From TrEMBL, chain A:
PANTHER family xrefs: F-BOX PROTEIN INTERACTION DOMAIN PROTEIN-RELATED (PTHR35546), OS05G0139200 PROTEIN (PTHR35546:SF105)
Gene3D superfamilies: 1.20.1280.50
Source taxonomy: Eukaryota, Viridiplantae, Streptophyta, Embryophyta, Tracheophyta
Protein known as: F-box domain-containing protein
Species whose genome carries this gene: Aegilops tauschii subsp. strangulata
Residue ranges constituting the F-box domain according to the UniProt record: 41-81
NCBIfam families according to UniProt: F_box_assoc_1 (TIGR01640)
Domain of life the protein comes from: Eukaryota
TrEMBL record, chain B:
Upper lineage: Eukaryota, Viridiplantae, Streptophyta, Embryophyta, Tracheophyta
Function: Involved in ubiquitination and subsequent proteasomal degradation of target proteins. Together with CUL1, RBX1 and a F-box protein, it forms a SCF E3 ubiquitin ligase complex. The functional specificity of this complex depends on the type of F-box protein. In the SCF complex, it serves as an adapter that links the F-box protein to CUL1.
Protein name: SKP1-like protein
Pfam families referenced in this protein's UniProt entry, alphabetically: Skp1, Skp1_POZ
SKP1 component POZ domain: residues covered: 24-83
Quaternary structure (record): Part of a SCF (SKP1-cullin-F-box) protein ligase complex.
Originating organism: Aegilops tauschii
InterPro entries (alphabetical): SKP1 (IPR016897), SKP1-like (IPR001232), SKP1-like_dim_sf (IPR036296), SKP1/BTB/POZ_sf (IPR011333), Skp1_comp_dimer (IPR016072), Skp1_comp_POZ (IPR016073)
C-alpha cells in the first residue's frame, strides 16, 4: 500500500544493515539478559497502560518494581488510576446551627486523595438520608424521597466512584432499627443487605411479645444483589435483641453484631449458620457489647474497666472460646 | 494506495461529492532514511503531521527521526485503513437524498462488515512481538495518533491483566528493585489483591 521513491529502494544488503542499525540505536539492551523493554516507554504512557487495568491488577502492579509503585501513587497520574480511600463518616449535631445535623468525612487516605463528598449529593431524589452502615468501601444508606417524604428506600453506593444502586424497598426500612451491609470485594462484587426485624416492627401483638427481651429479633431478611430478591426467615435462635446503633463487622461472609445482654450474634450471608457467642467474662456487670471489631481475619472484643483495657480474640464460633491477647494498663 | 474496497469507494465519493479532500501525496521519511508515501488524508491522522502540513513544512517530505522504517510502514497501514473508514462514515451521512431504503440496508450491512474487517485488522496489527509493540506505542505517541496509541496500549494492558506480579516481571523483563522491607510493605498494603 505504500509507494517508495525508487531512488531509495533498499537493496537486500542495505535492508539488513538498517535492521542492525535499529538494533543498536533504539534498544540498547535489547536481547540482553535482564533488560527492561519498558524503560523506553515514558511515564505517561506506562500510566496510561496501567490505568486500563481493573483495580485488582493495579494493586498487583504496585508490587512489580519501584518505578511502577511510584507511578501509581504519584499525584500526577493517580487521577487516572482507581485508588483506595480510607476514612470515616460521622455526624455532628449542633442546636445553634442550621442545619442542626451535619455529616462529615475524615479522609485518612494517602495524601487525602481521592476526595469524598460527605453530602453524597450524587444520589438522586434523596430528600434526606442516613448512612446506616459501611463495609469495605460501600455505604448502605436509607433515603427519604424528596418527592414523597414518607417513601423510603435503601441505597447502596460507592462514595468515591459515585456509583449507586437502589435496593428494592421492603415494608421495613422505616420501622427497622438494624440494617447492615455485607460486602467483600476480594470474594465477589455482589453485596448483601441484612435487616433484623424485631417483634414490634413485625407486628406481633404487644401481649405476645417477649417480656425479657424488649424488641426481640423475630425475622431476618437478607437481600442478595446477585439474586435481586429478599429472603425472609423466622429467627429460631436466641432470644436476642439488637440495639439500634449496635457495632457490627463483616468478615469472611459472616456478619458479627453486638447484641443486648453481653452477646455477639453472628450469621452468614445465606442465613444458614448462626452463632450466639457470649462475650468474655467480666468482673463487673456492664451491659455494653460494643467493643466488637475485626482485624486481620479474626473477630476481637475490646473491653475496658477502670484500670485496664483488655483485647480478646475469638478462637472459634462454635465453642465460643476467647483468648486474652493483650492487657493494657490505663496508668 | 491499495485497491481495497474501502479505498475504491472513497475515491468514488470524492468524484460524486466533488469533495475538498485533495489527492495530494505526502512523503514521510523514516529514521533510517527510507521514504514512504501516504495520502494527505491518511497522514493527517497524525496530529503532529497535520500541524506540519498546515504550517507548510511538508513540501520536501517530512523526516521522522524517531520512527524506523518497519514501524513507519505499519503506522501508515493503520492510517490508510482508518482514514478510509472515517471517510465511509462521512459518505453515508453526506448523501441522504440519494439513499432509498434498499441502499440504506446495504450500506448498513457493508459498514457492519467493514467494522469487523477493521477490528480484525487492528487485532493483527498489534499481535506482534513485545519490542515491536512498544515501538508502535512510541511512534503513535510521537506522531499523536490517538486511535493507534489506544489500540497498542490496550494490547499491553490485556497482556498484564490477571497476571501475577512474578509473571508481569518475567514477561516484561522488569527487575525487582525493592529491598526486602519495601516489598513486604507494599505487598501487605495490597494483600487482598493476591487472594485466590
Amino acid at each position: 500500500p505504500n509507494s517508495r521513491s525508487p531512488a531509495q529502494t533498499p537493496s537486500p544488503a542495505q535492508t539488513s544493515m538498517h535492521l542492525v542499525v535499529i538494533g543498536r540505536s533504539n534498544k540498547k539492551k535489547k536481547g540482553m539478559e535482564g533488560s527492561d523493554p519498558m524503560a523506553t516507554l515514558t511515564d505517561d504512557i506506562l500510566a496510561d497502560i496501567i490505568s486500563r487495568l481493573p483495580y485488582k491488577s493495579t494493586c498487583c502492579c504496585k508490587c512489580v518494581s519501584k518505578r511502577w509503585r511510584d507511578l501509581i501513587y504519584h499525584r500526577h497520574h493517580r487521577k487516572k488510576m482507581p485508588q483506595s480511600v480510607v476514612g470515616f463518616f460521622y455526624e455532628g449535631y449542633n442546636e445553634c446551627r442550621s442545619p442542626r445535623k451535619a455529616r462529615y468525612f475524615t479522609n485518612l487516605s494517602r495524601e487525602y486523595y481521592p476526595l469524598v463528598d460527605p453530602s453524597l449529593s450524587f444520589l438522586p431524589n434523596c430528600g434526606s438520608l442516613d448512612i446506616l452502615d459501611a463495609c469495605n468501601g460501600l455505604l448502605l444508606c436509607r433515603c427519604w424521597k424528596a418527592a414523597d417524604p414518607l417513601k423510603l428506600d435503601y441505597v447502596v453506593c460507592n462514595p468515591t466512584t459515585e456509583k449507586w444502586v437502589s435496593v428494592p424497598a421492603t415494608e421495613w426500612p422505616s420501622k427497622v432499627g438494624v440494617a447492615r451491609l455485607g460486602f467483600d470485594p476480594a470474594v465477589t462484587s455482589h453485596f448483601h443487605v441484612f435487616e433484623f426485624i424485631d417483634e414490634e416492627a413485625w407486628g406481633v401483638p404487644e401481649d405476645e411479645q417477649d417480656d425479657d427481651f424488649y424488641r426481640r429479633i423475630h425475622t431476618l431478611a437478607i437481600y442478595s444483589s446477585k439474586a435481586g430478591v429478599w429472603k425472609y426467615q423466622t429467627v429460631k435462635q436466641g432470644p436476642f435483641a439488637i440495639p439500634k446503633h449496635s457495632v457490627s463487622s463483616f468478615l469472611n461472609g459472616v456478619l458479627n453484631l453486638a447484641a443486648d445482654y453481653n452477646l455477639i450474634v453472628a450469621v452468614d450471608v445465606e442465613g444458614d449458620n448462626w452463632w450466639l457467642v457470649p462475650i468474655p467474662e467480666r468482673p463487673d456487670y456492664v451491659d455494653d457489647t460494643n467493643g466488637i471489631f475485626t482485624s486481620q481475619g479474626r473477630v476481637y472484643f475490646a473491653d475496658s474497666d477502670r484500670s485496664k483495657l483488655s483485647i480478646w480474640i475469638l478462637e472459634d464460633y462454635a465453642t465460643g472460646k476467647w483468648t486474652l491477647k493483650h492487657n493494657v494498663s490505663h496508668l | 494506495m491499495a485497491a481495497t474496497p474501502a479505498d475504491a469507494s472513497s475515491s468514488s465519493s470524492e468524484a460524486v461529492v466533488g469533495g475538498e479532500k485533495s489527492n495530494k501525496m505526502i512523503t514521510l521519511i523514516s529514521s533510517d532514511g527510507e521514504s514512504f508515501e501516504a495520502t494527505e488524508e491518511a497522514a493527517k491522522m497524525s496530529v503532529t503531521i497535520k500541524h506540519m502540513i498546515e504550517d507548510g513544512c511538508a513540501d520536501d517530505g517530512i523526516p521522522l527521526p524517531n520512527v524506523p522504517a518497519k514501524i513507519l510502514s505499519m503506522v501508515i497501514e493503520y492510517c490508510n485503513k482508518h482514514a478510509a473508514d472515517a471517510d465511509d462514515t462521512n459518505k453515508h451521512v453526506a448523501d441522504p437524498a440519494d439513499a432509498d431504503e434498499d441502499d440504506d440496508n446495504n450500506n448498513n450491512n457493508a459498514s457492519a462488515g467493514e467494522k469487523e474487517d477493521l477490528k480484525s485488522f487492528d487485532a493483527s496489527l498489534v499481535a506482534v512481538d513485545q519490542a515491536t509493540l512498544f515501538d508502535i506505542i512510541l511512534a503513535a505517541n510521537f506522531l499523536s495518533i490517538k486511535g493507534l496509541l489506544d489500540l497498542a496500549c490496550q494490547k499491553v494492558a490485556d497482556d498484564i491483566k490477571d497476571k501475577s506480579v512474578e509473571e508481569v516481571r518475567e514477561i516484561f523483563k522488569i527487575e525487582n528493585d525493592f529491598t526486602k522491607e519495601e516489598e513486604e510493605a507494599v505487598r501487605k498494603e495490597n494483600a487482598w489483591a493476591f487472594n485466590e
